[in-house]
Amino acid sequence: MDAKSAAGRTAGGLSIRLRTVLKHKTMYLMLLPAMVYFIVFKYIPMGGILIAFKNYNMVLGLWDSKWVGLTNFKDFVNGVYFWDIMGNTIILSLYKLAFGFSAPVLLALLLNEVQTQWFKRVVQTLTYLPHFLSWVIVYGLMVALLAPGDGLINMLLKENGFAPISFLTESAWARPMVVLSEIWKDIGWGAILYLAALAGIDPSQYEAARIDGASKLRLLWHVTLPGIRSVVVLMLVLKLSHILDAGFDQIFMLANTFNQDKIDIIDTWVYREGLQRLKVGLATAVGLFKAVIGFGLVIAANKVAKKFDGQIW
Amino acid sequence: MTNLTFGEKAGQAVVYLVLTLLALLCLFPFVYVIAVSFTPATEVMRRGIVIIPEKVTLAAYKEVFYHHGFGQAYQITLFRTLVGTALNMLFTVLAAYPLSKKYLPGRGVFLLAIVFTMMFSGGLIPTYLLIRSLHLLDTAWVLVIPTLISAFNVIIVKGFFEQLPGEIEESARVDGASELQALWKIVLPLSMPVLATISLFYAVGHWNSYFDAIVYINDTKLMPLQVVLRNILLNLQAQSADPAANTEYVSTAALQMAAVVVTTLPILVAYPFLQKHFTKGVLMGSIKG
């Protein structure tokens, strides 16, 4: 008796659920293309990480290639290139954090001091612009200014009796070029969030401090900076969680055989090794290695960010 | 502002000076590149550095379009930007609308599945092998289909839909409108700000991306603008170091810079819209969707 009624209840529950699903069938139909897209183009490649554990052979394909366990990972960690590309990736990310992260904060603080509205708008308009250009175009501008033969700066150097500098092909210049071009491209853009945070500071706080006789510097220290602290910390945590993404589109454009030793990062290496030298298993393993660490860092960052009363995604 | 101390006045002066320099630094490369692209090779040889050319020539632009496949590349880029963005918007809205309905059973699972793809991916190689087995290599569609829906944009649009007042939509549904009709006639007209922002996100992304074409396309006839520009910049760079390469009427530099200008122009033309809507988008993205 009991079992029977329980079964009846479950069946009833199922049919109720089925009915709710049918009631919303248009909604599910709308969602269907997106689900197909994410399964095919995101989740199937996730299944493809099995290749990392195989000696992948293009002819045999995924299923028939031989299992090799962790060999690809061991090859990577023991490879001569391991410390080079890990080092390049992390060093570039840290440079970008140190300079590329603070530049927009500084710009926002400077813009915040400007009382002349038209001037502020002109500066914002001009500094936001480079963000919308591709790295190919930015590289084109760099060629115009920095090329050894007829780049503007080198022509100036030569006219004044100095030797030209190979900014774009010398390995000593590679990292400074990556960091400087990134700052140039995104300083204005990065400032937008901080400007919004600055605009959100309650003006009465400034009034109160001013009545107490606080100088401009003290206002900056006691009102302005605390007012944007949480946004800055949040952005910093987010940036830190992407420490293994040193900026593929940019570096793929800026790197060449001459300067590659200083700026060859995990992503560019995976591309070369996997798609040009066809070491598919090894390259997939390295990609997976990076994706797993990146995933852990993003989860950790979100935990930290929650403590600061905000969420990243 | 008369009661500023000397130190504060000096501080203000420094602020204005630094910002002016920075703004000029952002503007100057464009001015210079445009100047170079219009300067005849003979004038560069005679005068050295030319910021304002005495004579203006279109020779470099003609060369770019006649001999470097820019016409063809423009068509490919226009295709991926227009058709790609239209499809992006269609499928993003279709996904975001059901996900914005809190009553929809299974909504949480779908959302999690989408958000997860923002944090973890199979990576370049498995994606390449998938594209290959779908026979998308060396087709124009490979520039559109693999980036059909951005998870991030779905979350933003969904967040916007959730904030809309539900009453009008409900009354329309009571009057017998279907979900699709409610979406089309009521929700979308109210969502124009977010739709404008997101479509510009997609469009600029399409215009600017170059790596997918490098990986997935070998056929030179299918190369988008950015890839052709990249080839011009990289292949001619070696030559430009050699002054002998500049003996023709069009200097290598002028040719490269004409290519840069042609690729940048649409972004510059659209910039007033881009600035307005993107700024909103940055702030939308920062609020949890």
Question: If you had to describe this structure to a student in words, what would you say it looks like?
Answer:
The complex is a heterodimer of chains A (313) and B (289). Chain A has 15 helices and 2 strands. Chain A has helices spanning 2-23, 25-47, 61-64, 71-78, 82-113, 117-128, 135-146, 152-159, 171-199, 203-211, 216-241, 248-254, 260-263, 266-276, 280-307, and strands at residues 54-55, 66-67. With 289 residues, chain B is mainly alpha-helical. In chain B, α1 crosses α13 and α4 (70-99) packs across α12 (225-240). Chain B is globular. The mean pLDDT of chain B is 88. At the A-B interface, α1, α2, α5, α6 and α7 of A face α1, α4, α5, α6 and α7 of B. Chain B: It is a multi-pass membrane protein. Chain B: Pfam families: BPD_transp_1 (PF00528).
List the topology elements.
The complex is a heterodimer of chains A (313) and B (289).
Chain A: H1 2-23, H2 25-47, E1 54-55, H3 61-64, E2 66-67, H4 71-78, H5 82-113, H6 117-128, H7 135-146, H8 152-159, H9 171-199, H10 203-211, H11 216-241, H12 248-254, H13 260-263, H14 266-276, H15 280-307
Chain B: H1 6-38, H2 41-47, H3 59-67, H4 70-99, H5 107-119, H6 124-133, H7 151-163, H8 167-174, H9 179-190, H10 192-208, H11 211-216, H12 225-240, H13 252-286
Helix pairs in contact in B: 1-13, 3-13, 4-7, 4-10, 4-12, 8-9, 10-13, 12-13
Subcellular location (chain A): Cell membrane
Keywords (chain A): Cell membrane, Membrane, Transmembrane, Transmembrane helix, Transport
Domain ABC transmembrane type-1 (chain A): 86-301
